[in-house]
Amino acid sequence: MQWSLTKLLAGLVIVLIMNAPTARAELICLGNISQDLIGNIDDVGQIVTGEQTSWANGSTIRLALPGKSSPQLEGISARFMTSTGKELQRHWLRLAFAGQAAPPKFFDSNDALLNYLRKTPGSVGFIEADEGTSLEGLIQIQIQQENS
Amino acid sequence: MNHDLSLKLTFCSATSSKLMLASLLGCLLVTPKTLALELGSNWTLNIFTDIQLNWDDDDHDEMSMEDHDHMDDDPMGAMHMEDGHTMHHSVNDFELGETVLFVQGQATDRLSFLADFNIQPKKYRDDHHSTKIFQVARLQAKYQVSNRHSILVGKMHTPVNYWNDNFHHGTIFYPTISRPLAFEEFVPHHEIAVRWAGENFGQQRWFYDVILGSGQSAENDPFTNGIKAFALIGGFHPSPRSQIRLAYYEDTILNHEDDPNHVSHAMDGMVEEGLDYEYDTYAASFHHESDKIRVLTEIFLTDSKADDLKKTWYQYFGWKVKPWITPYLQSDWVSVPSGEIHFQPGHNRFYAIGADFSIHPQLSFKAEFFTQDNDRVDEPYERTGLQVKLSVVL
Q: What ipTM did this prediction achieve?
């Protein structure tokens, strides 16, 4: 009886551990821009789609995105373009070829993307960050809840 | 064409064919790894290339490649090729597309450069009168004046319709295998010009372009005859994924009868030698692309004081059954009224049903069944067939 009770308690502990709240990564938008340029952004989704390619002062927006085959890029494409990551890449190839925008850069790790943002004035990027991610030197830009 | 020159061209064509095939294979091998080759932190290089295979039931225009190469000997030989699109499919079972070297760079926060060089053996070029294997399609500088206004200078694609402004040499972006028939005769592909552009006005993101250009007769000599071409383009986005644009373009072909670009559709007695040919074009484009459908309409009208309105209409409808499979329907027709003294009168109608398999962002395979009815040539014909195209970008 005592042995069964021990097993039951151990099982309960395991279930509780498995269901314990964990630090959840959240998609955030970061920019290496001055605070006054943020007011120029109606919707960061328009930066992802290439509808907005320059800041209010005319300087070029340099877009940084997660790796081409990453689930993060799939999430961004679905959220802002209702498309797949591959379609987003084709879309940007076309924009670049038409001379309408500078092509985005893709990064396989958050660290590489954050380093690029910190080194590149006028850049904006998307990462899935958790509580441990350092956003030093960058400005967080609010993402609208729904893509207009 | 003398014999030595002919031999040189044949040799160059063979060499460049091999180079392009090698580059295509190279693209296939490395394309999954990158979106563009980075030339330093602010410069990128893309290489676009394609191959096409055609089978059709028409053989009335069959000729040897030697005959084809020598067509330039006959000034009126070009007359038979006024529809280069058609002649390609009748003469070649295999077509090597342009290999495009596309370089883009950001010099400063506001100043960017773009260059688009293309390589293609002469025998595969639409403009058969050209002896150039290597051509500069675009060479332009863009200065972003503000977030809505920019000024461009250089050789550029004339943005008179959606197609030419978005995917002129990038066959991977074409929704169908071939360009609209209007491109063979009516659309001014390139312009050495100054272009003032504005965009993103209001909720519907209105845009406009004003262009002062050298004109088609100037070819690659900037403003050698002064400002000969003018274009005004305007449009808006009725929805975030749709665009409507209207365009007006006017130009004067100088000494039309001798202009090498226009010998190709010159007709006996059409204009007196030394006369200039003034013409206007009006274009309307509609493009819509969602996650389910894609629609493209291109209407192009050409007018002049000397003759009547020429009409072309390209229509595309695609349905994305999967993100990477898009079956489509295409219709394309050209109508030139009888009594026309500049272009060959008659009709050219092209219909196709096909599918685009975009299995990778940098690779597209298209296949289509088509039928064509063309009476704008010396020997009118009807034909049906199958064509496939593989396009790759590195």
A: 0.78
Q: Please, are residues A130 and A72 in contact by the beta-carbon 8 Å criterion?
A: no
The answer to whether the beta carbons of residues B142 and B151 sit under 8 Å apart is: yes
Cβ atoms B288, B313 nearer than 8 A: no
How many angstroms from the chain centroid is the CA of residue B392? 17
Pick the CATH number of B3-393 from 3.60.21.10, 3.30.870.10, 3.60.60.10, 2.40.160.10: 2.40.160.10
Run of H or E residues at B334: strand B325-336
Tokens at residue B135, please? 């051509």
Sketch the domain layout of chain A as residue ranges: 24-141
For residue A70, which residues of chain B lie inside 8 Å, CB to CB?
none
- Quick check: B114 and A99 CB within 8 A? yes
Fold of A24-141: D-Maltodextrin-Binding Protein; domain 2 (3.40.190)
Tokens of B324: 């990477």
How far apart CA B256 and CA B230 sit, in angstroms, is 18
Answer whether A60 touches B (CB < 8 Å): yes
pTM of the model: 0.80
Domain boundaries, given as residue ranges, for chain B: 3-393
In tens, the pLDDT along B14-54 reads 565 666 666 666 655 554 445 678 887 788 888 888 888 88
